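Subject: for your reference before the review

Hello V.,

The reviewers asked for a structural picture of the protein, and I figured it would be easier to keep everything in one thread rather than splitting it across files. Below is the amino acid sequence we used in the manuscript, unchanged from the supplementary table.
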Amino acid sequence: MTIRDIDEVLKRRLRLQAARHGRSMEEEARNILRSALSVSDQPTRNLADAIRARIAPLGGVELEIAPRETMRDPVDFAG
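And here is what came back from the structure prediction:
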């Protein structure tokens, strides 16, 4: 596989990251692809589930739910 027209800044970042990990640029690119493609493509059912899944590992907070009040009478603008 050959990848052409890689931006020089991107290539430099890949080279630096590979050096930090003690790998060649080619091995670093393989590792990045492997990591990126190992993530499941299953979509989340809804936004609330996506947020919950993202935040759940951080822990939670129990909030006290305020008691409901009785409905007020509507304002009479006629008189």
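For the response letter, the relevant points are probably these. The longest helix spans residues 8-20. Helices lie at 8-20, 25-37, 47-55.

Happy to draft the paragraph if you're swamped.

O.
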